[in-house]
Amino acid sequence: MSPRWGMVIDLDRCTGCQACVVACQAENNIPINTEAVYLQHRAIEWIRVERYWDGEYPNIKARYIPVPCMHCSEAPCEPVCPVYATYHTPEGINMQVYNRCIGTRYCAVNCHWHVRFFNFWEPKWPESLQNQLNPNVSVRSRGVMEKCTFCIQRINNAEQNARLDGGRPLRDGEVNTACAQACPTRAIVFGDLDDPESQVAQIANTTTRGYKVLAELGTNPSVLYLKKIDPEAPAHGGAESA
Amino acid sequence: PVLNPVDLVFGRDNWYATAAGECGLIVRVFEGRAKKVEGNPDFPTNLGASDARAQALVQEVYHPDRIAQPLRLSGARGSGEYQNASWEDVLTELGNDVNGARGATLVITPPLSGPMGQVVNEFVQAVDAEHVTYEPEDRIVLREAVRRVFGTDTLPTLDLANTNFLVSFSADFLHTWISPVQFSRQYGEFRQGREDVRGTYWHVSSRMDGSAANADRWLPITPGTEGLVALAMAQVMVSEGLVDRAVAEQVYSGISLDQYAPDAVAETAGISAEQITELARRFAEGQPSVAIAGSLAAAHTNGLFNLTAVFALNYLVGSVGQEGGIILNPPPPFESDVPGPSSGLPYSDWSGVVNDLNSGRYQLVIVYGVDPVYGLPEALGLREALANAGKVVALSSFLDDTTLQADLILPVHTTLESWGLIAPDPGPGFQAVALQQPVVNPFVDSRAAGDILIEAATAAGASLPWPTYEDAVRAAVDSLRQLNRGNIDAPDAKQYFVMAQAQGGWWDTSETAESAPDAPETPTPAAQPEYAGDPGQFPLYLLPFPSNSLGYGETANLPWLQALPDPMTSAVWSSWVELNPTTADRLGVDTGDVVRLVTPRGSAEVPVYVNPAAHPDVAAVPMGQGHTDFGRYAKGRGINPLDLVEPATESETGALAWAGTRVRVETTGRKVRLPRFEGQVPAFQLEGAPIIEVIPSEH
């Protein structure tokens, strides 16, 4: 039985440190977000940490939420691609096929989470920094869409090894995404949601704090958040933009 | 769709354990290139976790502006004009210089423990040099506070996984304070690692930092009043009988607690007496509870009092050396000639160094591993003083502000190319050392700093005990083997070293600190913070603060860290000043308006960020930017707030009180776009379906 990859993000553990953000950029050959890129509002962060204000000084809180691609089972980005560049794998991952993509950007428009990023420019690194690039991940060229892949190269690698190892099933923990691996508070847990023994499934199946962001849209995300606990949460409705 | 076979990549991965700072690391190396840094799951301080700074170490190796060969000054000092030189020539030259400058050589490094510290000590002795160390000044105050309150030279760790109530006084322990990965790992367990308890965390500070943002309650206080609030807490606990009065009198000997009732300090501290009382009750009743202090609390003229008063609270609730409390660290397992943790030189002593430099006392200055010209305030005049040294030699990978003053630059290996044996400070509560090994060959024609010193000493006719620095590391590992304890079991020295390399270090979980004292050994008198600048002319407090990703500026050259949004403002690639909305309104400025910060020491222009969590009396400016060079990603970016700081010192330690200056904010009429993450994607809490859902408790 093929796995169904998913993620749990515990907002009560997350501290907003953004180790996940840099770990993802290092693993996935994300172009450097220069000052100019930020001023153009075109920063690429496959996982980002949003900050929301809640309340007013002095009773004010800053709250953090890491946002990767939700890998929706009913992903609104998928049916709108005219060239089938946006595709759902049998293992539940929402993938982007770079060499099919013609850059209509319709998928990005249709994504409610804004986790798809268009390459407006050819990505550039100074020559020496190219030595760091991950050989298992394509560098995306100008004109194509890119997004979180749940570190598909790590999954492929592990599955390949398991096949060579007599075709055994993957063990829980054998694959981890770069963000989850770096996370110092262990707020992010990744694994097979269909394996009842996996850590991610056990959290997802037993938690009383689970919720999905924009669940009412019915897209069935594969990322489950665990609610932030705040014993003295101020009344809601006052939170401002991230 | 057609499923492609798994992409074929020629080559294979190798994974090597090494270390940086307080963390054990595993680095993925592919075809001789370092690709990705992960935490070492076995190393006891971080247990597999890492942070943004560790991740960015690969960019240090392959940085396009890394110094690739020895350089000799060809223009005026400070001009940045250099020509290439050969290693043979520069090492001979350095040997001659060292020989000719006996008794007149100054060596500047960070406080070094382990074999590197040993090499520097031996070098300094062999060539009759003087040695001074630089580290961020609040760290000096912290070390003295730990010595006074807990009687140890090593910094303590925490056992947050078993703590019920944590209060931090200005210590940004999740992001910048001493060992953020270690504390973050524990914090996850503190919040959600236990079935029945979710730890409660309050934060008392004059600026909401990335840690305070995660607190259950934040108490914004007037800058520098951390110690006062701690005494008021003690007063409440004693007067309400929550703790033993005799213990409190012993802990705060010389201080009459009755003078510090909440009513008496509330106005000064800027919070209500009720808030202090509630904090005290929670702290006393929520045992095991912990109180920590650092960062800004240490950077005032009364920094030592602030820290000692807070750390002493732990004695009142019996959490020193106890489960869920402050865990003291034993000294590192090194032999007596290998140095352990030590303090940097306090600011007051740097004035003496500068005077000596100006008097022409030093013919040769060797700088390694630190950038004091950047890290010490402009007011000290270190840059100008270096011009009076006969010759300045920098052992450095980058053209930072200090290296820019050098006559000779010798490029050194970066972290991932170096040998080393590091005793993390703070350690995990028992003896542990991380073995740092080169995971890749040097990317440029650099040398190990230790080797340069050994060769220079040899060329000067002195001899050090080892032919290379690697031998010093191996000797230190072999002395660990002779302890006959710890995690490694191997038949011979060679096998032992290989095992240490593979595991990433040595540790002995049973070798913990000796029992903790009952009370601070030396009392510290209560003190009020003092500020440079008349409040009428300079109405706000200038609070520089360490940046989440750039720290005190040491990682400002790395693009991933420049591009990483600040946790409060989400600003990137720049400097800014945080102002409360009411303060900004009064000045008539908004986010992006450029203002002039004027202190008695000088002025600088920066854009405003209107921060709804900023204290109304505070103008907070991040540290880390304002480098003269330091490579293309740092050069000419933002300001260094230390240039605005009046050089007041902490009253007992002489460390720089970098938060002890007042400031006036003047408008300039100019506006810029502040680069920041905010606004990159439309993100807002939705009515009825919030992005972040918050509940009062688990059940």
From TrEMBL, chain A:
Q: Which PANTHER family match?
A: PROTEIN NRFC (PTHR43177), PROTEIN NRFC HOMOLOG (PTHR43177:SF3)
Keywords of the record, alphabetical order, are: 4Fe-4S, Iron, Iron-sulfur, Metal-binding
InterPro entries assigned to the protein according to its UniProt record, in alphabetical order: 4Fe4S_Fe-S-bd, ET_IronSulfur_Cluster-Binding
One Pfam entry name: Fer4_2
Q: Does the keyword Calcium apply?
A: no
Protein's recorded name = 4Fe-4S ferredoxin iron-sulfur binding domain protein
Q: Name one GO molecular function term.
A: 4 iron, 4 sulfur cluster binding
